[in-house]
Amino acid sequence: MSTKKEIANLTKMKLNDLQTKFAEVTGETTRSPNKAFLIRRITEALQAADAGEQVAQAPETATPGAQTEVTAQTEPASTDGKLTRLEMPELQARYLEVVGRPTGSTNKAYMIWKIREAQKGHIPVGPRKNAHREGVTFKVLPLRMESAVVDKLDEAWRSRGIKNRMKFFRGALGHYLKQLGADDAAALFADATAA
């Protein structure tokens, strides 16, 4: 199956299938329920793998002068040599060094792409921030509304300098609970309403 078809099929997949595909292409496991996030990350990994295959095939079909040009465009110089020439353990070590967290991926093209993105500052580096805390249980609350309403909502909180949608929702809940006289519950949202 071509990469384009594989990417097109992602929107038809169920959540658990997307999580499995995510692990397959990135080498990282996830329990994220966010389908848009999973599809984006899987798409990036598939495109990176496809680009890596094209680079690997290019020297075989190109003339010697063109081969040098392809390599120069796709393989920027790095301090420890060309990433494509590294063996898997060396590449995983380089990934850890640059991205700041280990990977179980064996997809060379994906790891090379991720290292380069980290070097350019396009992705967050360092250990992943875990939303789970010792002794705390989280619940995800589904909230469904029309896209036009969401657009207006986002416009409103952005125009008031609120950092993100979650901070807006937490602040709004805190204010509303305070109006209802539920001060104990409103206090739980005090950090969001302070901004």
List the helices and strands and how they pair.
Elements: H1 3-9, H2 15-26, H3 35-61, H4 64-74, H5 88-99, H6 108-120, H7 147-159, H8 165-180, H9 183-187, H10 190-193
Helix pairs in contact: 2-3, 3-4, 3-6, 5-6
Account of the 3D structure:
The structure is a single chain. With 195 residues, this protein is mainly α. It has helices at 3-9, 15-26, 35-61, 64-74, 88-99, 108-120, 147-159, 165-180, 183-187, 190-193. The chain has 2 domains: 3-120, no CATH class; 147-193, no CATH class. α3 (35-61) runs antiparallel to α4 (64-74), α3 packs across α6 and α5 (88-99) runs parallel beside α6.
Q: Which value, in Å, is the CA radius of gyration?
A: 22 Å
- Number-wise, the strands total 0
What string, H for helix and E for strand, traces the elements in order? HHHHHHHHHH
- Low-pLDDT segments, ≥5 res: 58-80
Cα(first) to Cα(last) distance is: 49 Å
Q: What is the global morphology?
A: elongated
Question: What structural class results from the helix and strand content?
Answer: mainly alpha
Oligomer: single chain
Descriptive tags:
2 domains; 10 helices; 195 residues; mainly alpha
Give a short overview.
The protein is mostly helical and 195 residues long.
